[in-house]
Amino acid sequence: MNLEKTLDRILLRVSKPTRYTGNELNSVKKVEGEFKVRVALAFPDVYEVGMSHLGLRILYHLLNEREDVFAERVFAPWVDFEEQMRKEKIPLFSLESKTPLKKFDFIGFSLQYEMSYSNILNMLELSGIPIKSRDRKDKDPLIMAGGPCAFNPEPLSDIIDFFVIGEAEEVIHEIIDLYVYSRNKNNFNRMDFLLKLAQIEGIYVPSLYEPVYNENGTLKEIKPLYKNLPAKIKKRVVKDLDKAYYPTKIIVPYMDIVHDRAVLEIFRGCTRGCRFCQAGMIYRPVREKNVKTLHNLAKRIIENTGYEEVSLASLSTSDYSSLRELVEILTDEFRNCAVGLSLPSLRIDSFTIDIAKKIQEIKKTGLTFAPEAGTQRLRNVINKGVTEEDLLCSVRGAFLAGWNNVKLYFMIGLPTETYEDLAGIADLAKGVIREYREIKGNTKGVQVTVSTSVFVPKPFTPFQWESQIPLQEVENRQNFLKKNLKGLGINYNWHDSKLSYLEAVFSRGDRKLGEVLIKAHKKGCKFDGWNELFSFEKWMEAFKEANIDPDFYALREREEKECFPWEIIDPGIDREFLWEERKKSFRGEVTPDCRFNRCNNCGILKLRKGINCGI
Q: How many C-beta neighbours within 10 Å does residue 198 have?
């Protein structure tokens, strides 16, 4: 089959054909024979979602810097293109060289969201690769995965050959080097390679470990099958971000993507300690890039891409210690070429009028704040550490600086939440409207968008022991907000409660869920994060056929000493610290932000006692 000619024909029948063409500005192509190892970086969602992910961009260009590696991209095909692939018997292929995935040495999946798991199975099937790791032969690609969801790898442990835990920029070279060495020897053996791989810090090979369960279905332990295997897998941490690889000649897509702009990562980690936030726990310690490094990177990225906007990315951008200086330098640098700045992940207690005015000198971008909860009592429970006055002061400054559009993010179903807390969400939104009226004299043009997601208890957080609220109660609370958020200038968006329920199941699930995934895949489940394709009924059928009760994972409060599936991973956080933070939450105690404390061993910023620097 001539794939190029077939693609020319079938792409006329599908929506958004540029998802599958490749050849974008700054994409990489290598000639056969110039490299030894082929790596497919696979994102289990559509092109425009995957191409917005910074981690994929970093690894793509980092690997292609190596002469012995050709890294290519592959994304989940949308349903119309998948239909044509199956009809024409076309296997899933890479964008750069249109090579079938089955011919690659490695396929690396990015695990950003639990509800993308079904797409992983679908992509493997479309590639002709066995879904279960135990069924793969020496000639099959090695399937690896990393990302935040890898911090509970167990639900995918029957499917993924090995997981990369933590930051991959350094460990990916160790993996490739070991593979090149192993393959240069006669008779490459998959199991021998995985045994050697498991000796590398940050690598979890689940087939080399066995879960043991108690009679009540809870986990007793995950035990190594070989003596020389680590009992826990320690996450990898890049020590110096100023010296770490960061791409400046990034791919520029032909089509609009979710975040279609240059991204400048200013620091990693977070010191705030919000008790619901997994990212704030697992990505510690805090490591900042210096202003000079960021300035040079920004200039080179804009020169190489032509983007008209730079996003300063981090978990909490306004906590960057030199933010004011960086904003002044970048706005002065890009004023003549009309390149604007956007500041995502703003803290409502850190936003200032001066910074607001500075970033709108070139281009006005949207403002998003995340109070998370409607009352001070509940914000103390989750350790948010901000007040209503913080929010109103921030939006007041924004309105004075010329903004009229503000987005507010909240969660519902947080531990101890009451309807009084929900009413507080409506009160805050209306308070923002009042601030605008006081400044402008009217409400003409103001727009406040309130969005709520459903609380999902996550591994390695103080709330990992908590239960999620039942589906009917989620709907009751959403309906309460719909009624109370009616008003001039306020829009209300909410998240699908059934999707959040399944996210909670897989977030804290164990290895038994692998069979549920396979059954759901056979029923046609895919793109579960997309409302038009999500089928809750098919998922419930899959759980029933696997004889597994999803409430056991989502709605059950855990005992203090229960062994958790994710504790095969060592994220550098003490369980005792998390339990103490949980107890504080129910007392309404706030743990102060200690962003200026430093690790005695390495001097890198860390949070407080009980947090390992990870280095």
A: 21
